[in-house]
Here is the input.
Amino acid sequence: MIGSGLAGLTAARALTGLMDRVTVIERDWLPRGPGRRRGVPQARHTHSLMTAAQQGLEQLFPGICQDLVRAGAVPVRVPEDMLLLGPSGWLPRCATDLSMLSAGRDLIDAVVRDRLRADPRITFLQDHEVVALEPGPEDTVIGVWACRRNRGQPDGWNPEHLIPADFVVDASGRGSRAPEWLAELGYAPPAESVAESGTSYATTLYAPPVGHVADFKSLFLMATAHDPRQAVLNPVEGGRWSVTLAVGDGTLAPTDHAELLRAAGTLRHPLLHDLIETATPLGPVYTRGRTDSRLRHYDRLRRWPDQFLVVGDALAALDPAHGHGMTLAVESALVLDHLLTAHGTAVGISHRLRRALARQVAPVWQSSIRAQRPVRGLRARFGRRYASRIAAAATTDPHAAALLLHQEQTLAPPAALRSRALRATLSPRRDPAATAPPTLTHGPESRGRRPAVPSAPVIGVSTGSAARPRPTGSSAHWPLAAPAGERRGP
Ligand SMILES: Cc1cc2nc3c(=O)[nH]c(=O)nc-3n(C[C@H](O)[C@H](O)[C@H](O)COP(=O)(O)OP(=O)(O)OC[C@H]3O[C@@H](n4cnc5c(N)ncnc54)[C@H](O)[C@@H]3O)c2cc1C
Here is the structure.
């Protein structure tokens, strides 16, 4: 396994279904616990595990979501625990089967890494950089060449040495050099689809103001066709807030706290500004550009070495606006797990694996680039009109809200949810959309009032996610919020 990001870690777990020994080769030194690493600079930005990522991780590592929560990750019911300003207004805080697990990326990787460290079949080879593939007979890969870091050497690395392997997986992230490695062995480079994003991200951590109490855990201001900026405030371990501002209009993201605060004040709603104005910054503002979406079409290559595969961002790196990267990584590992187990050997399966991964990536890729590169044509126009009707209905109708959020998480919504949401788009609106965020703790209505308990049915329950017990009651879809589970002070 080349790389120990989430794609490498989960694929390593998948390989143990078939292999006696799995070696994870990582360029960085790997900390014990959630320490920083140079190899994942995006870890400084807000990361959350969406519903499908949590479900996939649970399949690979039973009980891991509990481990994450124990380590400090914060479960957030979507949109029940959130204030979510959709494209057409605030969404009702209805109950759905959607959730996210919010934590620092270093923490997520550390918890998964610890599971692998406890597995005697898995070895981590840290401080090793893979520099080439070793070809075998009849179009196969039978190992990799790697250098070990050595500060005593003039270039910082020992000479390269061969690490033999029956199956090699490249999970080295956006900077993957697989096309070059394959070219050195005489293989054609893959075709690439690229969608430039022009979005840049600014992220920082805050300690909430002393005595902060809220009936929501998370705030999300979505981008619209007119304002391509979006912002998120998520709770992370240690009672902190991780705040990210995504600037999608080609301008640069803020680089310091004063600029970030100013930019927050010009968003579609001032709530984020009001929240961070009295919060305490806990570190610098990290910025990140160059988040173009890039898909390498390895599945289309006629000639390809067997016993070699590319997964994760190395295969499909998406603009992180929708937070799908880790979901794709986990789902790729599941594909690997199922196909390898069914095939019974790592020989003669690369072609099927490449095609299966391409099929799995396709819908997420399509929905990601649609947002970046609007398509022309009648069908696309119809699609956009339908999407804007769903967005409008989502401000008052819980089914439309649930559908919008299923789409946001690229989950297939149950048919019943789709038809109920469609009905909501056709019927004339009964309730006016809320102009204020659905919270009793912030805004003009907040003083002296206590948050009420929600009493909505769970909307859109689909694939076997654990059904949560709901309080009973009458009010179906208005904004009553549960007291936030995380009310830690700074
Ligand atoms: C701003 C931002 C916010 C994001 N937010 C979210 C989110 O909320 N939810 C979500 O699901 N996704 C999010 N993502 C996407 C997510 O970070 C990536 O999709 C995910 O990290 C991909 O994992 P990976 O394992 O493929 O690559 P990486 O995590 O990049 O890991 C690659 C690993 O390979 C190692 N490596 C590289 N080259 C070599 C080599 N030659 N030899 C040995 N080791 C090597 C690196 O050191 C690194 O450890 C976000 C991304 C960004 C940029």
Residues 6-76+104-191+293-368 form a domain with the FAD/NAD(P)-binding domain fold (CATH 3.50.50.60). The CA atoms of residues 80 and 93 lie 4 Å apart. The chain is about 30% helix and 20% strand.
